[in-house]
Protein backbone atom coordinates (compact mmCIF):
# COMPACT_ATOMS: atom_id res chain seq x y z
CA UNK A 1 0.00 0.00 0.00
CA UNK A 2 1.23 3.48 -0.82
CA UNK A 3 0.78 6.61 1.28
CA UNK A 4 -1.28 9.39 -0.32
CA UNK A 5 1.00 11.03 -2.85
CA UNK A 6 2.57 14.09 -1.28
CA UNK A 7 3.65 17.15 -3.24
CA UNK A 8 5.29 16.22 -6.56
CA UNK A 9 9.06 16.21 -6.36
CA UNK A 10 9.34 18.80 -9.12
CA UNK A 11 7.69 21.45 -6.96
CA UNK A 12 9.56 23.68 -4.54
CA UNK A 13 8.00 21.87 -1.56
CA UNK A 14 10.68 19.70 -0.02
CA UNK A 15 9.55 16.41 1.48
CA UNK A 16 11.33 15.51 4.68
CA UNK A 17 10.75 12.09 6.20
CA UNK A 18 11.98 11.35 9.73
CA UNK A 19 12.41 7.74 10.79
CA UNK A 20 11.92 7.73 14.57
CA UNK A 21 9.84 9.94 16.83
CA UNK A 22 11.85 10.38 20.03
CA UNK A 23 13.29 13.58 21.49
CA UNK A 24 15.70 14.12 18.55
CA UNK A 25 12.93 13.82 15.95
CA UNK A 26 10.61 16.01 17.98
CA UNK A 27 13.29 18.70 18.39
CA UNK A 28 13.94 18.62 14.65
CA UNK A 29 10.26 19.10 13.78
CA UNK A 30 10.01 21.96 16.28
CA UNK A 31 13.10 23.64 14.81
CA UNK A 32 11.83 23.31 11.24
CA UNK A 33 8.49 24.74 12.29
CA UNK A 34 10.15 27.65 14.07
CA UNK A 35 12.11 28.35 10.88
CA UNK A 36 8.81 28.36 8.93
CA UNK A 37 9.76 25.38 6.77
CA UNK A 38 7.18 25.27 3.97
CA UNK A 39 7.60 21.70 2.76
CA UNK A 40 6.10 18.55 4.25
CA UNK A 41 7.40 16.57 7.22
CA UNK A 42 6.39 12.96 7.75
CA UNK A 43 7.38 11.39 11.07
CA UNK A 44 7.38 7.59 11.31
CA UNK A 45 7.00 6.23 14.83
CA UNK A 46 7.28 2.53 15.56
CA UNK A 47 5.26 3.00 18.73
CA UNK A 48 1.48 2.83 19.01
CA UNK A 49 1.26 5.20 21.96
CA UNK A 50 0.63 8.86 21.30
CA UNK A 51 2.61 11.07 23.68
CA UNK A 52 1.30 14.64 24.07
CA UNK A 53 4.46 16.23 22.67
CA UNK A 54 4.10 14.23 19.46
CA UNK A 55 0.37 14.93 19.16
CA UNK A 56 1.08 18.64 19.47
CA UNK A 57 3.59 18.45 16.63
CA UNK A 58 1.14 16.41 14.57
CA UNK A 59 -1.30 19.34 14.77
CA UNK A 60 1.07 21.50 12.70
CA UNK A 61 -0.27 21.84 9.16
CA UNK A 62 2.91 20.69 7.41
CA UNK A 63 3.47 17.71 9.73
CA UNK A 64 2.06 14.21 9.53
CA UNK A 65 2.89 11.65 12.21
CA UNK A 66 2.38 7.96 11.41
CA UNK A 67 2.01 6.04 14.65
CA UNK A 68 2.78 2.31 14.78
CA UNK A 69 4.65 2.52 11.47
CA UNK A 70 8.26 1.37 11.88
CA UNK A 71 10.46 2.40 8.98
CA UNK A 72 11.68 -0.93 7.71
CA UNK A 73 13.34 -0.35 4.34
CA UNK A 74 15.12 2.54 2.66
CA UNK A 75 15.55 2.72 -1.09
CA UNK A 76 18.30 5.32 -1.24
CA UNK A 77 18.38 5.35 -5.05
CA UNK A 78 14.70 6.12 -5.55
CA UNK A 79 14.52 8.02 -2.25
CA UNK A 80 11.66 6.14 -0.64
CA UNK A 81 11.11 4.69 2.82
CA UNK A 82 8.80 1.72 3.36
CA UNK A 83 7.17 0.82 6.66
CA UNK A 84 6.63 -2.64 8.08
CA UNK A 85 2.98 -2.42 6.95
CA UNK A 86 4.04 -1.76 3.37
CA UNK A 87 3.36 1.98 3.23
CA UNK A 88 5.83 3.88 1.10
CA UNK A 89 6.93 7.46 1.54
CA UNK A 90 8.95 9.41 -1.00
CA UNK A 91 11.47 11.85 0.41
CA UNK A 92 13.80 14.56 -0.74
CA UNK A 93 15.66 14.43 2.58
CA UNK A 94 15.50 11.56 5.06
CA UNK A 95 16.55 11.96 8.68
CA UNK A 96 17.19 8.83 10.72
CA UNK A 97 16.47 9.34 14.42
CA UNK A 98 15.86 5.78 15.53
CA UNK A 99 17.69 6.23 18.84
CA UNK A 100 19.18 3.38 20.82
CA UNK A 101 18.16 -0.08 21.98
CA UNK A 102 19.38 -2.49 24.67
CA UNK A 103 22.51 -4.36 23.64
CA UNK A 104 21.29 -7.75 24.80
CA UNK A 105 17.97 -9.55 24.42
CA UNK A 106 15.74 -9.48 27.52
CA UNK A 107 16.64 -11.70 30.46
CA UNK A 108 14.16 -14.49 31.27
CA UNK A 109 11.49 -13.04 33.55
CA UNK A 110 12.36 -9.43 32.67
CA UNK A 111 8.65 -8.68 32.46
CA UNK A 112 8.51 -8.94 36.26
CA UNK A 113 11.12 -6.21 36.75
CA UNK A 114 11.06 -2.49 36.82
CA UNK A 115 12.76 -1.48 33.61
CA UNK A 116 14.82 1.66 33.27
CA UNK A 117 15.17 1.53 29.51
CA UNK A 118 14.31 5.06 28.42
CA UNK A 119 14.41 8.43 30.10
CA UNK A 120 10.59 8.31 30.38
CA UNK A 121 10.90 5.28 32.66
CA UNK A 122 12.18 7.27 35.66
CA UNK A 123 8.68 8.26 36.88
CA UNK A 124 7.37 4.72 36.23
CA UNK A 125 10.23 3.22 38.25
CA UNK A 126 9.61 5.71 41.06
CA UNK A 127 5.90 4.77 41.15
CA UNK A 128 6.71 1.03 41.15
CA UNK A 129 9.08 1.52 44.08
CA UNK A 130 6.49 3.45 46.07
CA UNK A 131 4.00 0.64 45.55
CA UNK A 132 6.44 -2.03 46.77
CA UNK A 133 7.45 0.11 49.79
CA UNK A 134 3.78 0.57 50.71
CA UNK A 135 3.11 -3.15 50.52
CA UNK A 136 6.20 -4.02 52.56
CA UNK A 137 5.80 -1.23 55.09
CA UNK A 138 9.57 -0.71 55.13
CA UNK A 139 12.49 0.51 53.02
CA UNK A 140 12.86 -1.95 50.11
CA UNK A 141 16.10 -3.57 49.05
CA UNK A 142 16.53 -3.23 45.30
CA UNK A 143 18.71 -5.32 43.02
CA UNK A 144 20.00 -3.14 40.24
CA UNK A 145 21.24 -4.90 37.11
CA UNK A 146 23.38 -2.92 34.71
CA UNK A 147 26.54 -1.04 33.92
CA UNK A 148 27.10 2.33 32.32
CA UNK A 149 25.29 5.65 32.46
CA UNK A 150 21.72 4.31 32.58
CA UNK A 151 22.55 2.15 35.62
CA UNK A 152 24.15 5.15 37.32
CA UNK A 153 21.00 7.18 36.76
CA UNK A 154 18.80 4.31 37.92
CA UNK A 155 20.85 4.06 41.11
CA UNK A 156 20.23 7.76 41.76
CA UNK A 157 16.47 7.25 41.24
CA UNK A 158 16.48 4.25 43.64
CA UNK A 159 18.34 6.14 46.36
CA UNK A 160 16.13 9.20 45.95
CA UNK A 161 13.09 6.98 46.48
CA UNK A 162 14.50 5.39 49.64
CA UNK A 163 15.57 2.05 48.16
CA UNK A 164 18.81 0.44 49.31
CA UNK A 165 20.37 -0.61 45.98
CA UNK A 166 22.55 -3.69 45.56
CA UNK A 167 24.14 -3.44 42.17
CA UNK A 168 25.28 -6.30 39.95
CA UNK A 169 27.21 -5.79 36.77
CA UNK A 170 27.03 -9.53 35.97
CA UNK A 171 24.04 -10.31 33.77
CA UNK A 172 21.58 -12.72 35.39
CA UNK A 173 20.33 -15.80 33.57
CA UNK A 174 16.82 -15.33 34.97
CA UNK A 175 14.66 -13.22 37.25
CA UNK A 176 12.49 -15.07 39.73
CA UNK A 177 9.25 -13.34 40.62
CA UNK A 178 7.86 -13.43 44.15
CA UNK A 179 4.22 -13.40 45.15
CA UNK A 180 3.53 -11.55 48.34
CA UNK A 181 -0.02 -11.94 49.56
CA UNK A 182 -1.65 -9.74 52.12
CA UNK A 183 -5.43 -9.59 51.98
CA UNK A 184 -6.42 -7.96 48.73
CA UNK A 185 -2.89 -6.61 48.26
CA UNK A 186 -1.11 -9.34 46.41
CA UNK A 187 2.12 -8.33 44.74
CA UNK A 188 3.95 -9.99 41.87
CA UNK A 189 7.37 -8.42 41.72
CA UNK A 190 10.79 -9.77 40.93
CA UNK A 191 12.70 -10.60 44.09
CA UNK A 192 15.66 -12.69 43.04
CA UNK A 193 18.14 -12.90 40.22
CA UNK A 194 19.83 -16.16 39.32
CA UNK A 195 23.19 -16.29 37.53
CA UNK A 196 24.59 -18.84 35.05
CA UNK A 197 26.73 -20.45 37.77
CA UNK A 198 23.65 -21.09 39.94
CA UNK A 199 24.38 -18.30 42.43
CA UNK A 200 21.63 -15.81 43.20
CA UNK A 201 20.81 -12.49 44.86
CA UNK A 202 17.58 -11.65 46.63
CA UNK A 203 15.83 -8.38 47.25
CA UNK A 204 12.39 -6.80 47.26
CA UNK A 205 12.50 -5.59 43.71
CA UNK A 206 14.70 -5.79 40.64
CA UNK A 207 15.50 -2.89 38.33
CA UNK A 208 17.04 -3.57 34.91
CA UNK A 209 19.12 -0.71 33.50
CA UNK A 210 21.17 -2.35 30.83
CA UNK A 211 23.66 -0.92 28.38
CA UNK A 212 22.33 0.45 25.10
CA UNK A 213 23.64 0.72 21.58
CA UNK A 214 22.62 2.87 18.59
CA UNK A 215 19.74 1.45 16.59
CA UNK A 216 21.48 1.51 13.21
CA UNK A 217 20.16 -1.66 11.53
CA UNK A 218 17.79 0.20 9.21
CA UNK A 219 20.61 2.48 8.08
CA UNK A 220 23.12 -0.35 7.68
CA UNK A 221 20.70 -2.32 5.50
CA UNK A 222 20.41 0.70 3.21
CA UNK A 223 24.17 0.83 2.78
CA UNK A 224 24.92 3.70 5.17
CA UNK A 225 28.29 3.50 6.86
CA UNK A 226 28.06 2.54 10.54
CA UNK A 227 30.69 2.77 13.27
CA UNK A 228 32.40 -0.34 14.65
CA UNK A 229 30.87 0.26 18.07
CA UNK A 230 27.44 1.03 16.61
CA UNK A 231 25.90 4.23 15.26
CA UNK A 232 25.38 5.80 11.85
CA UNK A 233 28.58 7.52 10.83
CA UNK A 234 27.94 11.23 10.34
CA UNK A 235 30.01 14.20 9.32
CA UNK A 236 30.07 17.43 11.33
CA UNK A 237 26.90 18.60 9.55
CA UNK A 238 24.95 15.38 10.34
CA UNK A 239 25.11 13.99 6.80
CA UNK A 240 25.40 10.22 6.58
CA UNK A 241 27.59 8.54 3.97
CA UNK A 242 24.60 8.40 1.56
CA UNK A 243 23.36 11.59 -0.15
CA UNK A 244 19.99 12.86 1.07
CA UNK A 245 20.16 10.91 4.34
CA UNK A 246 21.04 12.46 7.69
CA UNK A 247 21.23 11.06 11.21
CA UNK A 248 20.73 12.71 14.58
CA UNK A 249 20.38 11.76 18.23
CA UNK A 250 21.36 8.43 19.73
CA UNK A 251 21.26 6.70 16.32
CA UNK A 252 24.26 8.69 15.12
CA UNK A 253 27.95 8.42 15.92
CA UNK A 254 30.48 11.15 15.25
CA UNK A 255 34.10 10.04 15.39
CA UNK A 256 32.86 6.68 16.71
CA UNK A 257 31.11 8.29 19.68
CA UNK A 258 27.41 8.31 20.52
CA UNK A 259 26.76 11.18 22.92
CA UNK A 260 23.52 9.73 24.29
CA UNK A 261 22.20 12.86 25.94
CA UNK A 262 19.05 14.89 25.43
CA UNK A 263 21.01 18.09 25.09
CA UNK A 264 23.15 16.51 22.37
CA UNK A 265 20.02 15.30 20.52
CA UNK A 266 18.51 18.80 20.70
CA UNK A 267 21.61 20.55 19.42
CA UNK A 268 21.98 17.98 16.63
CA UNK A 269 18.36 18.64 15.66
CA UNK A 270 19.01 22.39 15.53
CA UNK A 271 22.11 22.08 13.38
CA UNK A 272 20.51 19.48 11.11
CA UNK A 273 17.43 21.71 10.63
CA UNK A 274 19.71 24.50 9.40
CA UNK A 275 21.29 22.14 6.88
CA UNK A 276 17.92 20.83 5.69
CA UNK A 277 16.63 24.38 5.19
CA UNK A 278 19.73 25.20 3.15
CA UNK A 279 19.14 22.11 1.00
CA UNK A 280 15.46 22.99 0.61
CA UNK A 281 16.19 26.53 -0.53
CA UNK A 282 18.85 25.30 -2.97
CA UNK A 283 16.61 22.61 -4.50
CA UNK A 284 14.38 24.82 -6.73
CA UNK A 285 17.43 26.60 -8.10
CA UNK A 286 19.04 23.27 -8.96
CA UNK A 287 15.84 22.05 -10.60
CA UNK A 288 15.56 25.24 -12.64
CA UNK A 289 19.16 24.86 -13.80
CA UNK A 290 18.65 21.20 -14.80
C1 LIG B 1 17.45 4.97 30.98
C2 LIG B 1 17.90 6.24 30.33
C3 LIG B 1 18.01 7.39 31.09
C4 LIG B 1 18.44 8.58 30.52
N1 LIG B 1 18.56 9.70 31.27
C5 LIG B 1 18.98 10.86 30.69
C6 LIG B 1 19.11 12.05 31.44
O1 LIG B 1 18.86 12.07 32.65
N2 LIG B 1 19.54 13.18 30.80
C7 LIG B 1 19.85 13.21 29.45
O2 LIG B 1 20.22 14.24 28.90
N3 LIG B 1 19.73 12.08 28.72
C8 LIG B 1 19.32 10.92 29.30
N4 LIG B 1 19.21 9.79 28.56
C9 LIG B 1 19.55 9.85 27.15
C10 LIG B 1 18.39 10.38 26.32
O3 LIG B 1 17.19 9.73 26.69
C11 LIG B 1 18.69 10.13 24.85
O4 LIG B 1 19.90 10.76 24.50
C12 LIG B 1 17.57 10.65 23.95
O5 LIG B 1 16.36 9.99 24.27
C13 LIG B 1 17.92 10.42 22.50
O6 LIG B 1 16.82 10.73 21.71
P1 LIG B 1 16.60 10.01 20.31
O7 LIG B 1 15.36 10.61 19.74
O8 LIG B 1 17.84 10.09 19.51
O9 LIG B 1 16.42 8.47 20.64
P2 LIG B 1 15.28 7.69 21.43
O10 LIG B 1 14.90 8.40 22.67
O11 LIG B 1 15.79 6.30 21.56
O12 LIG B 1 14.03 7.72 20.46
C14 LIG B 1 14.02 7.02 19.23
C15 LIG B 1 12.58 6.77 18.85
O13 LIG B 1 12.52 6.20 17.56
C16 LIG B 1 11.66 5.06 17.59
N5 LIG B 1 12.11 4.13 16.53
C17 LIG B 1 13.13 3.26 16.60
N6 LIG B 1 13.27 2.59 15.44
C18 LIG B 1 12.30 3.06 14.63
C19 LIG B 1 11.91 2.75 13.28
N7 LIG B 1 12.56 1.84 12.53
N8 LIG B 1 10.87 3.42 12.75
C20 LIG B 1 10.18 4.34 13.48
N9 LIG B 1 10.50 4.65 14.76
C21 LIG B 1 11.55 4.04 15.32
C22 LIG B 1 11.80 4.52 19.00
O14 LIG B 1 10.69 3.75 19.40
C23 LIG B 1 11.89 5.79 19.81
O15 LIG B 1 10.61 6.30 20.10
C24 LIG B 1 18.78 8.61 29.13
C25 LIG B 1 18.65 7.44 28.36
C26 LIG B 1 18.23 6.26 28.96
C27 LIG B 1 18.13 5.02 28.11
Automatic annotation (TrEMBL):
<dbReference type="InterPro" id="IPR036188">
    <property type="entry name" value="FAD/NAD-bd_sf"/>
</dbReference>
<dbReference type="InterPro" id="IPR023753">
    <property type="entry name" value="FAD/NAD-binding_dom"/>
</dbReference>
<keyword id="KW-0274">FAD</keyword>
<dbReference type="Pfam" id="PF07992">
    <property type="entry name" value="Pyr_redox_2"/>
</dbReference>
<feature type="domain" description="FAD/NAD(P)-binding">
    <location>
        <begin position="16"/>
        <end position="130"/>
    </location>
</feature>
<feature type="domain" description="FAD/NAD(P)-binding">
    <location>
        <begin position="153"/>
        <end position="266"/>
    </location>
</feature>
<keyword id="KW-0285">Flavoprotein</keyword>
<protein>
    <recommendedName>
        <fullName>FAD/NAD(P)-binding domain-containing protein</fullName>
    </recommendedName>
</protein>
<dbReference type="InterPro" id="IPR050260">
    <property type="entry name" value="FAD-bd_OxRdtase"/>
</dbReference>
Amino acid sequence: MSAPAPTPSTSAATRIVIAGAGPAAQALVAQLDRARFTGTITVLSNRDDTPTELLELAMLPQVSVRFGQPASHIDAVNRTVATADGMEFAYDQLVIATGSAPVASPVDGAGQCLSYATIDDAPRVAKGIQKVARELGRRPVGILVGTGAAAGQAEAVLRAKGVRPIRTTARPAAIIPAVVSGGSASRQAASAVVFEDGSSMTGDLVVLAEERVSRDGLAASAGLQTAAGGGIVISRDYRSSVPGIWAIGDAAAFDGVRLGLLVAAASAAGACATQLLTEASAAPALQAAA
